[in-house]
Amino acid sequence: MTAQLARKQMRTVWADTVVESLDTDPRLVVLTADISSWFFWDAKKEHPDRVLNFGIREQAMIDIAGGFALTGMRPVVHTYAPFLIERPFEQIKIGLAHQNVGAVLVSVGASYDDPSWGRTHQAPGDVALLDTLPGWTVHVPGHEDEVAPLLHQAIASDERVYVRLSERANSEAVPVSDGFTVLRRGGAGVVIAVGPVLDEVLAATSTMDVTVLYASTIRPFDHAGLRAAVGAARPDVVLVEPYLRGTSAFEVSEALADVPHRLRTFGTWRDREARVYGTAEEHDRLFGLDAAGLAESITGFLG
């Protein structure tokens, strides 16, 4: 995953976009839990009733977001992924999903962007956890230029939307779409890259005769796009996601329910924890998500 040099980080683009939207959308209300609250200090002076910081009270923050949504407001809620999805999951389940109201949940930290903080700041299971609830749209941008259009789309709707930001990004943006974008075509199989793993996938498959699909929106899953790609290639599918391995395996199986196929998934471990610190790049190598590890594994799978 390519480091961002002399470029805005996704979180900065998110904050800039939300601040601009506060001036134009009277429905919008921003809720933070200390993390990134400094981006909104000036905006709070202009919109004191619509920029709220709750400290480390994430459960209350989600329930209050649900209350705002019930009154017709559009809440944008933000903190580190484990504090946004895992810690207040019951409130997400009841205060948002069961009440059938929407919000835009925007996380930072991804699976292990900054391992020096330890396991408390890592959330590789966030998307899998949201999959237990109905009606969520999940965006996983792979470049800072993909953030604003996805966020504008999310704010304009009334749906439940999760935007999973990362501190790392691909070298180039891919135009935002609702499903898969075909980046390469080949006949030996289909490789799906989600969000910020794209650079490593492209490097790993550079000499392979495979179709490469990219998604910055992974829920809803683009069943039709995958079926079309498999119809033009051997029905061997490789799924590379920047979170828990196999999170979208069910969706692949549903898309190809009547198509005999093989599936190989890549992501963070399911059967054990990485009880180490180090750097994000070292974690990539540990999980086999670096270009060299992916190339070896994908080659072995495709034969």
Automatic annotation (TrEMBL):
Please tell me the species this chain comes from: Amycolatopsis ultiminotia
- Alphabetized Pfam families for the sequence: Transket_pyr
Q: Which Gene3D superfamilies match?
A: 3.40.50.920, 3.40.50.970
Which PANTHER family does the annotation name? PYRUVATE DEHYDROGENASE E1 COMPONENT (PTHR43825), TRANSKETOLASE-LIKE PYRIMIDINE-BINDING DOMAIN-CONTAINING PROTEIN (PTHR43825:SF1)
Q: Which residues form the Transketolase-like pyrimidine-binding domain?
A: 8-173
Q: What is this protein called?
A: Transketolase
Against InterPro entries, the record matches this protein to: PDH/Transketolase, THDP-binding, Transketo_C/PFOR_II, Transketolase-like_Pyr-bd
